[in-house]
Amino acid sequence: MAVGLLRWLLGPRSDRTGHKRSEPPAQTWRAIDPPIGDGSYIGINRTMCRQRIERTSPRFVVRANDLITRWNAQPLAKQFLMAGGIVAATAMIVVGAFVTSLIEDAVTRNSAATTALYVDSVIAPLLPDMQTTEVLDDTVSRALDETLGQGALGGRLLAFRLWRADGTILYANEESMVGKRFELSPELKAAFDGEVVAQFTPVDDLDGETERAANKPLLEIYNPVLQPWSGQVVAVSEFHEIANDFELSLSRARIQTWLAVAGFTLAFFIMLSAIVMRGSRTIDKQRLALKQRVEELSALLEQNEMLRGRLQQASQRATALNEQMLRRIGADLHDGPAQLLAYASLRVDSEALMNTSTPTDKREREVAAIKASLDEAMREIRTICNGLVLPQIETASLREILERCVHAHRQRTGSAVDLSLSRPPDHLSPSAKICIYRFVQEALNNAYRHGGGVGQRVVQSMDGNRVRIEVADGGPGFDPDKIRPTSLGLAGLRERIESLGGTFELNGAAPGTVVRMSLGIEEVGQL
Length: 527
Known about the structure:
The protein is an alpha+beta fold. Among the domains are: about 1-70, no CATH class; about 90-250, PAS domain (Beta-Lactamase, 2-Layer Sandwich); about 390-525, Heat Shock Protein 90 (2-Layer Sandwich), CATH 3.30.565.
């Protein structure tokens, strides 16, 4: 069925009669050979299979991207501990296994070399000329039995065989094996090539019946027997030595090796982790500080943008207010002095003055009228100029400005005004002095006009490097939301103060009205 499904998915196929069928429509159902069960077929829609594959593939991509995102979101120290731990553990296992293998080979070869030296020094002299001897006589066999059965090797020797190059066993401590011929094993072939071969076999890997019956680990050694005068390999001695002590030494060497590798790897990893964690903490602190700086800069940028917008609006409104003030001044000049001057001009060209026959008294009355019109025009012009010009304002201190403004208001209105000063600054820019003077002047005028001049007071104080001015009265108060947009007084004050970077506050809740302003000395000093 699986073969039929793959054949159907890959392209056109032959039907059950052997005729080639064309590709079925995308949304039709086709049976897949062979039938199952009672002869029914499994219906598979190719388009649905492809759609399922297409729907399934993005899931793996999404999961992979999710894992990558989670990984990148982890701190650097945690990433190093996870990745470095895996790499360090893998490296420890690989290095430990490699070093352990080298040590096992070295220990095994060392033991084999010791045994080979024993054979060369003790057993080899007992053997006859192996090139001419095919069978050992009884004398040699008894000598070998006595030698192998005593001494340090006798208690550990489980099996001993002496092999000839054709695979015949010349001698064995098991008499049943003597004279038999076997195919040479790879170890025997290597020994006949002049190589000492040693192989440690644990209890679980024992093969022969004798070895399994002993139920002890063995060290198999294949030692080439050399002809003394030619150095040619004439036989191979095979030792099966009980290796309890060897296994203990080997296990101890393994444990010590693994402990040394693990300790070194752990110390190295801990040292690197300490360095990385310290660096990660530094990076986290710097990242947090940078984030805070970015947030502060973003807030400052937003504040600067807001202040820039307010300053732009204040400049636009100040321009509009200046235009309104100019129109008001023009209207005052047009309706006052200009009319009087026009009247005087008409009287100058009157018949009473132009006619020489006009009586003197009438001519004098006409001249007096013209002079009166001109005098009134001059008075109105001076009045307008007094509202535009502040004499000696640039050279006066803040204390003198406030005292002069309050004194002028007292003389003009006859009302009482309390003045309170607290450490006024020694130096202010001319723009700040004019702003403060106009603020106090307009606020006192409003207090007298709308509050009846009751409880008027002016308070000056310092808030750090900012000078604060407060003007209050004890009148009925008013609703600030009902101020006309075209009103020049308060609107002009607000725009004038905000254009210098100051703040303006108005509280008209009854009883009384309080107007406050604040200017930064350093900020205003740069304007």
